[in-house]
Design a protein that fits this description.
heterodimer, A: globular, B: mainly alpha, Protein FMC1 homolog (chain B), FMC1_homologue (chain B), ATP12_ATP_synth-F1-assembly_N (chain A), ATP12_ortho_dom_sf (chain A), chaperone (chain A)
Chain lengths: 273, 113
């Protein structure tokens, strides 16, 4: 039963969330893992111990992460499980598993190509012509993002109202490809996850570059839905459910990308009197 | 370009989310590794000599992202429990919705159910 449930522990291939009621994944376990702690082996990297047993990925590899803050966050995720293991709430763990196991065998180039491919069907570049309120909203909210991306990366993107979408010049794609190539595999997996969730390369770059917070990016990605909600009303069990899930996944992806691509040093300056 | 608010507010919200997590784990929240790490990080990077500190903004952004993650996971789970966690109705309940009752056959149905 463990092998069948393995695929729920990966972030790729993307799984559509199931709205029809299902029993919790795994069912009640015989012994719930107790305290989750991080552990630093002498070889470097960080591992997770659940009740003194080492955490392993679904393919039985040892679960090692390069960053301590990430390991602490994963341990907190495992600590918050109660009664049953709900893998759909453990987004950071699934991301780590995807990187360590690489179940779809994708190398760095394939990841970058998949990420840049989203630019041709980027959400913020597709505008509508019909309800005037939505046109206005898209102009006010999406245009500043496109301008920011064009200025920051020195490229041309543009937007369109036709069904074919904007015409992205090859130079733009090359710029983004070389920019994404500067991240390591771990961070790139996180970035690609965020792009797949938000359905937009520009919004993802905005979040990764810390230009807009996660909540704003999710709002911009769901702009048309928010417009319709304001017009026709909010359905909690669908709209809010999707909103919180999208926020959780995007936040997990960005946190993952940031934690895996940084290194911090503290420099103490002497006070000069 | 939305602002993140004050770091104090982010820290307090983060601590509240950690209290919820520790309530589930059954341990006091001050024992958790996340609490120690956050406390040290916020203390260590509080004071710098520069007026516009990019590293401070980066750390605050990271804290705000983690807060968004914890909060959304908790709310998502709560909504799931309320709306989507119940299984299907049993056949008796479904029949009872329209006032019908299932037939009682003391001899058995004659085939496997």
């Amino acid at each position: 039963m463990w092998r069948r449930c393995q695929r729920l522990f990966y972030a790729w291939p993307p799984q559509t969330p199931r709205l029809c009621p299902t029993p919790p994944f795994g069912g009640p376990r015989l012994s719930l893992p107790g305290t989750a702690r991080t552990y630093t082996p002498p070889t470097g990297g960080f591992e997770i111990n659940l009740d003194h047993r080492k955490l392993k990925t679904p393919q039985a590899k040892l679960f090692t992460v390069p960053s301590e803050a990430l390991a602490i966050a994963v341990a907190t995720e495992w600590d918050s499980q109660q009664d049953a293991i709900k893998s759909y709430t453990m987004h950071l763990t699934t991301l780590c598993n995807t990187v360590l196991d690489n179940p779809s065998q994708r190398n760095k180039d394939q990841l970058i190509r998949a990420a840049v491919k989203f630019l041709e069907t980027d959400t913020v570049c597709y505008k509508v012509e019909e309800p005037a309120g939505l046109v206005e909203l898209q102009k006010n909210e999406w245009d500043p993002m496109i301008e920011w991306a064009e200025k920051r990366y020195n490229v041309e993107i543009g937007s369109s109202t036709s069904i074919l979408g904007p015409n992205i010049p090859a130079r733009t794609k090359d710029t983004f490809t070389s920019h994404l190539a500067s991240y390591n595999t771990w961070a790139l997996q996180g970035i690609e996850y965020v792009i797949a969730q938000l359905k937009s390369l520009i919004l993802s770059m905005g979040v990764i570059d810390r230009h807009i917070p996660v909540e704003k990016a999710v709002l911009l990605s769901r702009l048309e839905e928010e417009y319709q909600i304001q017009r026709w009303g909010n359905v909690e069990w669908a709209h809010d459910y999707d909103l919180y899930e999208l926020r959780a996944r995007t936040a997990a992806g960005t946190l993952f990308a940031h934690l895996c691509s940084e290194s911090s040093t503290v420099k103490h300056k002497l006070l000069q009197d | 370009m939305a602002s993140l608010g004050s770091p104090l507010r982010t820290l307090r919200s983060l601590l509240r989310e950690l209290r919820y997590v520790s309530a589930k784990a059954g341990r006091p929240y001050r024992d958790m590794a996340a609490y120690q790490h956050l406390r040290e990080a916020f203390r260590a990077h509080r004071i710098t000599s520069e007026k516009l500190c990019r590293a401070q903004h980066e750390l605050h952004f990271q804290a705000a992202t983690y807060l968004c993650l914890l909060r959304s996971v908790r709310e998502h789970l709560a909504l799931h429990q309320v709306y989507h966690a119940r299984g299907e109705r049993s056949t008796e309940e479904a029949a009872g919705l329209v006032g019908l009752k299932l037939p009682q056959q003391p001899g058995g149905k004659g085939w496997d159910p």
